[in-house]
Amino acid sequence: MLVTVFLLGLLYVAFVGALLVLLKSTFLVIVLAAGLLWAQYWFSDRIALYAMHGRIVTREENPQLHGVVDRLCATADMPKPQVAISGTDLPNAFATGRNADHAVLCVTQGLLRRLEPDELEGVLAHELSHVAHRDVAVITVASFLGVIAGIVVRFAFYSEMLGGRRRTDQNTLIVLGVVVGVSVAVYAISFVLIRALSRYRELAADRAAALLTGRPSALASALTKLDGDIARIPSEDLRTARAFNAFYFIPALNKNSPLPRLFSTHPSLEKRLAQLAAISADLGRPA
Fold it and tell me: For all residues of the chain together, what is the average pLDDT?
């Protein structure tokens, strides 16, 4: 994970250097992108909850769910996040928020309906690990470069191509082409690196959940069950939820998805199960 973050930082430095050489309005681009980053970082919990049609539930409304979260937070010695439920039947869960004091843990009705209590505990422990490790903040900061690159493409196009300079200015067209080319390359590279980082964070959360609950087999059972159930969800519903895959416990993809593993936000089911099996063997081995 450190290597991935280092490569993203190196890419960021090179990108800013190229902008300083090619554009005179770099400062405006950075300020605009920084504003979007700030909004995404500070309001990620509200944005994600609103997009998923989730609502905060009280202890009186769902004492069982709150009870599991209470036990896990006490074991992990961490603040309790807000607990929310989404009405969708898609079996999944996600956590969001910039830190443990401003976090939301959301589960879907489909998840609550399908999982046994020990399986639900494993999934919730996985999501609480994301909160404790500030994974939302990590991914948000890591995606900052991609945000800048996307903005630069639009900014360069509208300010240079449609602005005060004439289209017949060859130097302007050359600079515009170089800026767009560099921005596209940076976005593509950061896209791959961020997804690699996301896969590492998912494996880390699986490991933390297995150690926190002491039952890797329960988490493995939940993974296997949800992977099979999601494969039976209509493709139209999966396409609607696909934009939130980076948040989900398990990606909303069917078995026949053409998405290359390089672009996936989650490790393969086989890899996650193999790690849990190894942890289970370690826990069962005498000291």
Answer: 79
